[in-house]
Design a protein that fits this description.
Number of helices: 8
Oligomer: single chain
Shape: globular
Order of helices and strands: EHEHEHEHEHEHEHH
Structural class: alpha/beta
Number of strands: 7
Distance between the termini: 46 Å
């Protein structure tokens, strides 16, 4: 059970090999985290993470799952049993969007980052409602608010998941289950290593600290770093010609 301060004692991580997910679990382990279920396509990588957490006294289980298969997602949620928090952290950045690219690349991003994340959040919410309490944490992106030309497919998929999570939060009102939407900017991870950094670039550890603070405050949306909330409040209003110049 989450205690009165919002500290998490048990969690399921869908996408456990994400650098941001790993940092969030590490941050939770600094407090009262006792048990975590790490779900990942790369089970061996998740086992390495589990070993490090077990050295810190956190009981770990590792399960395999495929984010592109709804049945696999539901099985991972069921296998975790009762948990306080479900973190939906899987995703793919893909290649920079280009009209000349194979449209199958857009389908792949939409399937994993959009439909997969929506299915995961839905399955998690159903399980948490069944136990009467808990929180779904969904990793979205500032790209969901306003896309650039080179991340159009990625941004569209993230926007779909972001909108779904907002609607899910309203549907869950009064159930004892909450939703936290996380909107990071550019984060230095293995996934972004080949991309040029953007303004206000941050780290997984900094995102994790923001997420845990948001959990304790009971926030429903967290931007990381926080300044991006105000930056994008302005950027989303920019005329398209000016946005295209700034977003190169």
């Amino acid at each position: 059970m989450r205690d009165a301060t919002g500290d998490v004692q048990s969690a399921l991580v869908l996408g456990a090999n994400s650098d941001i997910a790993g940092a969030i679990v590490d941050e939770l382990a600094r407090s009262r985290l006792e048990r975590v279920v790490l779900a990942a396509r790369d089970v061996d990588g998740a086992r390495e993470r589990a070993g490090a957490l077990e050295d810190r006294g956190v009981a770990c289980e590792v399960v395999g799952f495929d984010a592109d298969r709804p049945d696999s997602i539901k099985q991972a949620v069921a296998a975790a049993g009762a948990v306080d928090l479900v973190l939906v952290a899987f995703g793919s950045l893909g290649e920079p969007f280009a009209v000349a690219a194979d449209p199958a690349s857009t389908a792949a991003l939409a399937r994993t980052n959009g439909a997969g994340a929506m299915v995961a959040a839905h399955a998690a919410a159903r399980a948490l409602v069944g136990q009467g309490q808990g929180i779904v944490v969904l990793l979205s992106s500032v790209a969901a608010v306003r896309p650039r030309a080179d991340n159009a497919a990625y941004a569209a998929a993230k926007a779909a998941a972001d909108v779904f999570a907002r609607g899910l939060a309203d549907a869950l009102h009064g159930s004892g289950v909450d939703v936290l939407i996380v909107r990071p900017g550019f984060v230095h991870t293995k996934m972004t290593a080949s991309r040029p950094a953007r303004p206000f670039a941050t780290t997984p550890a900094a995102v994790a600290a923001d997420v845990v603070r948001a959990l304790r405050r009971g926030d429903r949306v967290v931007w990381s770093p926080g300044v991006l909330r105000w930056v994008f409040a302005g950027l989303r209003q920019l005329p398209a010609p000016l946005w295209r110049r700034l977003a190169r």
